[in-house]
């Protein structure tokens, strides 16, 4: 089945770069109408897309961005939560401020946006949360990030349960090593402590294709799932 989204209204956070930008491009190709939310403006947004600047670490900014997006699109059929930050520190060095800042963006913002979406989406709506393989298996120095992504997967399941009666689906995508600036900022990668087989490093488009499937009618019977996109690397660890 060809995944088409003609006329569907989609909100994507973290839309300015990396995985978010790839998702935006793929949804636009499939015919979606888009509202893009990020702290910085996308370099080359699709024609006709709305661009909304917002610091999703602030609950009031989350509420305002959602309201403006829905007003501009006059609907919401799809929500893709991509925005996230990462802190590279040992557990003992992470402060309360570190935890609050990271969780505000990686967990609270998606939760608030999900709540807004559930109140406004019609039957047939779809939510996708971009989590990480760190939700299942992780490494040193990223405890807060891994914890937030595990919680995001749990939020996905709860949303699927609560959305089912209204015909709203929710799934998560767990990318592995994807060729983005965030991957190359990893201290383990920089130091050479972790060496990746090039075959295990994916393209942002690999994640975008998974997201497109999950928000489309092709996945109408799929909800509450967390789909790993890592070329089988985690299965071999």
TrEMBL record:
CDD domains, A to Z: SDR_c
The family this protein is said to belong to: Belongs to the short-chain dehydrogenases/reductases (SDR) family.
Protein name: NAD(P)-dependent dehydrogenase (Short-subunit alcohol dehydrogenase family)
Stretches assigned to the Ketoreductase domain: 8-168
Lineage: Bacteria, Pseudomonadati, Pseudomonadota, Alphaproteobacteria, Sphingomonadales
UniProt-listed SMART domains: PKS_KR
Signal peptide: none
One Pfam short name: adh_short_C2
